[in-house]
Design brief:
The protein has 135 residues and is mainly α. It has helices at 3-16, 34-42, 49-62, 65-77, 81-93, 110-122, 127-134, and strands spanning 22-24, 31-33, 99-101, 107-109.
């Protein structure tokens, strides 16, 4: 499964429900998706480590493997490997499991997909995206 397939699964799972990939921004009380949270960090807002930790804790507290995988991919793409591994491991350890459909029509267990993304991080498959994100 390539990165495109993994991201397609993530996007599909996030589009399915607003709550699955959403978290509350600590300062505004508004829902902020994982992608919006990471994008805010790449923009001038630059969340603090406390903001990141709070976001991670909230995502883990939701016990939603699809949301955790989404957040893990976004952290990996932005070069925050430690945070990515933390939420992906939470998805692996979650008792909640989903079958997620990939872009090519295959159905994959959420735990297996989280492990696949961890493997992609270990293989450096997000490194090129990290360099692009820094530009």
């Amino acid at each position: 499964m390539g990165l495109g397939i993994a991201l397609s699964v993530i996007m599909l799972s996030q589009a399915a429900t607003h709550g699955a990939g959403a978290n509350v921004a600590a300062d505004t009380g508004e829902f902020m998706s994982s992608r919006e949270f990471i994008a805010a960090g790449e923009a001038s807002i630059s969340p603090t480590q406390t903001d990141i930790d709070t976001h991670i804790d909230m995502a883990i507290g939701q016990d939603d493997p699809a949301a955790l995988i989404t957040l893990g991919v976004e952290f990996a793409r932005s070069g925050q490997t430690g945070a990515a591994l933390q939420v992906l491991n939470a998805a692996v350890q979650s008792e909640t499991r989903y079958r997620l459909e990939t872009a090519n029509g295959n159905w994959v267990d959420s735990r297996r997909l989280a492990l696949k993304v961890i493997g992609m991080i270990d293989n450096g498959e997000f490194a090129a995206q990290e360099r692009l994100a820094r530009r």
